[in-house]
């Protein structure tokens, strides 16, 4: 027995989806909707699962979701801590415990993300999971919803994935960035020594990346800070942006905001990106 209350879980998930507007999820409203809430395909895209998987869960006939999928779903549906814990229990899993890295975005942070529609913005967890983003950041850096939830992490992408492929660095900058990334995770490990997802991420990075392991053995720590980044956009060329990191103490999350000085080529490119967005360019 898997202890999943499928009927009640289906009711809760359908209700959560019906209450969430596209604006709440950072999505364009699109054409007129015949029913309230997000479409199933929108939730599937945000959570990194198939539409058929969402359909089966909402019809009470899905498999037992993994904790990883539950985390992605509850973040996609913008659930409060109380509602998130309910979904975990209905799915036969224990909710995230104290001492674990917070993965739920506070409503005030979500409102800030929605208001900053004219700048690319990301929200990262303490271990650099990409928890939320606005359409402009996806247009600038790539479609994050196309990345599986388990790989939707800056550190995983930096050492085991594409490296957030549009970011351009010299060899010296890349080495310095790698050391800083590893140092950040070492500091996070000291704060959250019992977080199983962080332990799993570190094991994967240390065994899968010789570069990561080399820097890990150096024993240095670091913190995330503001800097300047060069982005090679496939249609707009090379963009130089200020990348500011704003820490949210209560959740140990970071809001990353990209901007450019006015009257510069990059500022003009961002203006164009606001108009064209992600859909006009197609998948990259």
TrEMBL record:
It holds the Pfam family MLTR_LBD. SMART domains: HTH_XRE. Residues 33-86 form the HTH cro/C1-type domain. PANTHER family: BLL4672 PROTEIN, BLL4672 PROTEIN-RELATED. This is Transcriptional regulator. It comes from Nocardia rhizosphaerihabitans.
């Amino acid at each position: 027995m898997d202890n999943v209350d499928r009927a009640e879980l289906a009711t809760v998930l359908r209700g959560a989806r019906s209450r969430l507007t596209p604006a709440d999820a950072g999505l364009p409203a699109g054409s007129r909707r015949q029913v309230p809430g997000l479409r199933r395909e929108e939730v599937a895209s945000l959570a990194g699962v198939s539409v058929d998987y969402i359909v089966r869960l909402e019809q009470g006939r899905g498999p037992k979701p993994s904790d990883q999928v539950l985390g992605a779903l509850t973040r996609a549906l913008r659930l409060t801590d109380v509602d998130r814990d309910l979904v975990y229990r209905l799915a036969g899993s224990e909710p995230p415990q104290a001492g674990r890295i917070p993965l739920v975005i506070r409503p005030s942070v979500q409102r800030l993300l929605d208001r900053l529609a004219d700048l690319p913005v990301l929200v990262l967890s303490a271990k650099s999971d990409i928890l939320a983003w606005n359409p402009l950041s996806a247009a600038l850096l790539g479609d994050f919803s196309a990345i599986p939830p388990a790989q939707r992490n800056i550190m995983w992408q930096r050492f085991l994935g594409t490296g957030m492929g549009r970011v351009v660095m010299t060899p010296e900058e890349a080495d310095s960035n790698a050391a800083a990334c590893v140092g950040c995770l070492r500091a996070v490990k000291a704060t959250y020594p019992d977080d199983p997802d962080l332990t799993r991420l570190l094991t994967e990075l240390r065994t899968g990346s010789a570069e990561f392991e080399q820097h890990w053995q150096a024993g240095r720590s670091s913190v995330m800070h503001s800097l300047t980044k060069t982005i090679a956009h496939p249609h707009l060329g090379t963009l130089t942006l200020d990348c500011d990191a704003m820490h949210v103490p209560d959740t140990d999350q970071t809001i990353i905001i990209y901007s450019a000085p006015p009257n510069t080529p990059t500022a003009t490119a961002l203006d164009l990106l606001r108009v064209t967005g992600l859909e006009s360019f197609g998948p990259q």
